[in-house]
Amino acid sequence: MPCTADVLAGFARAGLVIGILAAGPAAAANPADPPPQPAQGSASAGDLKSDGPTQPAKLQDGQYTDANGDPTYHVTEGGKKVDWYTMSGYLRYSSNCIVCHGPDGMGSTYAPSLVDALKGMDYAHFAGIISGGKKDVNASQELVMPAFGDNRNVMCYMPDIYTYLRARSDGAIGRNRPAEHEPKPAAFAKAEDACMK
Ligand code: HEC
After folding, report:
1. Residue owning the nearest CA to atom 3 of ligand 1
2. Distance 75 CA to ligand 1 centre (A)
3. Measuring from atom 6 of ligand 1, which residue has the nearest CA?
4. Which residues are CB-contacts of 80 (< 8 A; sequence separation ≥ 6)?
5. Hey, whose CA ends up nearest to atom 8 of ligand 1?
6. Could you tell me the pTM of the whole model?
7. Which intervals hold domain Cytochrome c (predicted)?
8. How far apart are CA 83 and CA 79, in angstroms?
9. Does residue 110's CB lie within 6 angstroms of at least one atom of ligand 1?
10. Does ligand 1 lie within 6 Å of residue 190's CB atom?
11. Strand ordering across the sheet containing 71-72
12. Phi/psi class of residue 35: alpha, beta or left (left: φ > 0; alpha: ψ in -120 to 50)?
């Protein structure tokens, strides 16, 4: 059985493939495929403008990243419309994390608020905690953040969950399910299939 680091590296590669796949010639070959998304670099500054303090620096295949290359949100229409990753992250958070961290990342008596914890937490640090877990041995009650390194329902959606929580942490979106979202990118669906296999 591969160690967690190998699995993580594998998933991370699958994530990176998202952009590469759509750009490849195969994506354009089938006339039945949905029309291609705008190519990388074709987004104007206006397309990248987001509500909230963090502004995306780049858009590739429906995924927005900041100046450091970390995943970030694209929120428009006064917090009502979100990018696909934020929407997906909301759904994945709600099935895998909500039981301990509470609705909308607000925290519970058992686990800390992720709205607070995400402030200033970069993607690499976040991914490390999710895949490896975390244990507070000093707490009077033993607090355990489980390791999700072997759980594809979490690992295949790591950027999504980070993006959603970042939007919550930045105050770019409020509580509850986002009202509207950008379409699911074709490249996302491909990478998702590959990762979940
Ligand atoms: C079984 C309960 C449980 C589940 C499920 C759970 N967590 Fe946690 N999580 C915790 C606890 C408890 C801590 C605090 C651990 C500590 O203090 O060392 C924690 C800590 C964290 C931290 C670090 C916070 C900080 O301040 O450093 C992050 C980030 C996090 N969780 C994200 C997630 C995400 C994302 C999910 C869903 C994929 C998730 N957790 C699912 C219990 C859980």
Report:
1. 100
2. 25
3. 97
4. 178, 179, 180
5. 145
6. 0.82
7. 84-169
8. 11
9. yes
10. no
11. 58-60, 63-65, 71-72
12. beta
Domain extent, residue 125, equals 4-196
Probe ligand 1: pick from 100, 116, 125, max atoms within 8 Å of CB?
100
- 135 pocket-lining for ligand 1 (C-beta < 6 Å): yes
Give the model confidence (pLDDT) of 15-27 as tens digits. 443 433 333 344 4
Instruction: Tell me the C-alpha to C-alpha distance, in Å, between residue 17 and each of 84, 98, 195.
Output: 17, 29, 10
Q: Tally the domains of the chain.
A: 1
pLDDT in tens, 2-53: 455 555 544 544 444 343 333 334 444 444 555 545 444 445 666 899 999 9
Task: Give the CATH number of the domain where residue 161 resides.
Answer: 1.10.760.10
Residue with tokens 């759509």: 22
How close are the terminal C-alpha atoms of the chain, in Å? 16
> From the CB of 143, is ligand 1 less than 6 Å away?
yes
Q: 171 in ligand 1 pocket by Cβ < 6 Å?
A: no
Tell me how far apart the alpha carbons of residues 165 and 110 are, in angstroms, rounded to a whole number.
18
